Amino acid sequence: MDNVAILEAYIFILAVLMGFQLISKVPSVLHTPLMSATNAIHGIILVGAMLVAGMAQTTTEVVLSAFAVFLATLNVVGGYAVTDRMLAMFRKKDDKKGGQA
Length: 101
What we know:
Helix content: over 70%
Largest sheet: none
Number of strands: 0
Structural class: mainly alpha
Radius of gyration: 19 Å
């Protein structure tokens, strides 16, 4: 293994550990606003996955990039679905059926 691969693995492991620590320390009250903000980031990830898929040349690249687009799409749709369900808890009872005031 060369030094670049070791450095990349080290950075990846640090990012995973740091992300886990940061997410575990967020109070549950802040999860909904943070989820809404990160939906924009997930949209950027989806655009990046589509760009990579557009430049794929080999069969392996096409399959992996299509899978990345699929997972990114699930992430965006799931994030908005969870945010919508969380925000529904704060709506008035007569407004929960989807009608706007």
